[in-house]
Amino acid sequence: MSLKRILSTALLSIVLVCTIPVVDQAARTAIASEKQETALSMTIDTKKLSGINLVIARMYNEDRVLYAAMVTIVMAVLGTVLAFLTDLVLKALGLEVSRISHRE
């Protein structure tokens, strides 16, 4: 994995993290006028939780838009890390992984 690709992925992650508050506020404003309580409102019981589990459960209960954005960002970062680690392991095994060139 090239340094240019890693830096572009990191830059994209930073841009996404910086735009979350803007998107979150816009979504809250749009939803606030139409918000209705329904019988299907699911919440997580936080009485027995602590640490990171409590933070994630509170985020899920209080702000689903922010929760969805954070889950998306965490998944993207973890996918990038796993791809980078896989590339390192394959290089250590002597396999050179590169893009496939398609010839027609």
Throw out a few tags for this protein.
single chain; 0% strand; 67% helix; 104 residues; elongated
What does this structure look like?
- This protein has 104 residues and is mainly alpha-helical.
- The protein has one domain (3-30, 48-92).
- 67% of the residues lie in helices and 0% in strands.
- It contains three helices and no strands.
- Helix 1 runs antiparallel to helix 3 and helix 2 packs across helix 3 (64-92).
- The longest helix is centred in the N-terminal third of the chain and has 30 residues, at 3-32.
- The chain is elongated, with a radius of gyration of 20 Å.
- The model has no long low-confidence stretch (mean pLDDT 77).
